Amino acid sequence: MKVIGLTGGIGCGKSAVARKLAEEAGVESLDCDRIAWETYQPHTAIYQRLVRRFGKGVVASSGKIDRARLGSLVFSDNKAQADLDAIIHPAVIEQLQEQIGINQQRGTELLIVEGALLLNSPHVDLDLFDIIIQLELSRSEQLARLKGRDKRTQEKIERIIDIQREMDQRSAPDYIIDASGTVDEVVEHIKEILRRLKGSQRHLS
């Protein structure tokens, strides 16, 4: 099984591309954001750590962590963001490793792992991936795509975009793809990369 990391900033179309690729036989996809959400469901150890660090104010009336409230707390606080990442990211990687093993047992041929911070977070084990593909858009294109689609304010969206663009990468991606085209066009670019790599010993075993 080959594990392909798919990264890129907000609005670059990672989710749509991953879903499209997963329509192919033998291909599955995992969303690191979804995995993160699952790690801090009520009564989990991560949930308790988040409440201890950020207070009961991050708990919604449903008893679940309110992601919007939590996001607001770390929005302009680098220390709080680092603390949040240190709590959640290792748990995400642990779950990701488990899911990779499950997919290997199932006979999955290609596993797409979608995550915005695959190349940024110090907690990500880059050895889990055979290759990492980065989707890229200009800042103006990101804003245009997110306008009216994202529930966050324009200020928050712009801040997220700028923070992601300012973050240092631990390693360069293996491939960079212009994501300004349609989902089908981006998917075809990725498929072409995978076709060229098929049988190659570089990165792939």
Features:
8 helices, 5 strands, alpha/beta, 205 residues, Rossmann fold, disordered C terminus, five-stranded parallel β-sheet
Quick overview:
This protein is α/β, with parallel strands linked by helices. It is built from eight helices and five strands; from the N terminus they run βαβααααββααβα.
Notes on the protein architecture:
This protein has 205 residues and is α/β, with parallel strands linked by helices. The chain has a single domain, classed as P-loop containing nucleotide triphosphate hydrolases (Rossmann fold, 3-Layer(aba) Sandwich), CATH 3.40.50.300. Helices cover 48% and strands 13% of the residues. Helix 2 crosses helix 5 (78-106), helix 3 (45-54) runs antiparallel to helix 5 and helix 6 packs antiparallel against helix 7 (154-166). The model is unreliable at 201-205 (pLDDT under 50).
- SSE-based structural type: alpha/beta
Q: How many strands in all?
A: 5
Reading off the top of the CATH hierarchy, the class is best stated as: Alpha Beta
Summed up, the domain count is 1
For the biggest sheet, the summary is:
5 strands, parallel
Tell me which oligomeric state these chains represent. Answer: single chain
Architecture blueprint of SSEs:
Elements: E1 2-8, H1 14-21, E2 27-31, H2 32-39, H3 45-54, H4 67-74, H5 78-106, E3 110-114, E4 131-136, H6 139-146, H7 154-166, E5 175-178, H8 183-197
Parallel strand pairs: 1-3, 1-4, 2-3, 4-5
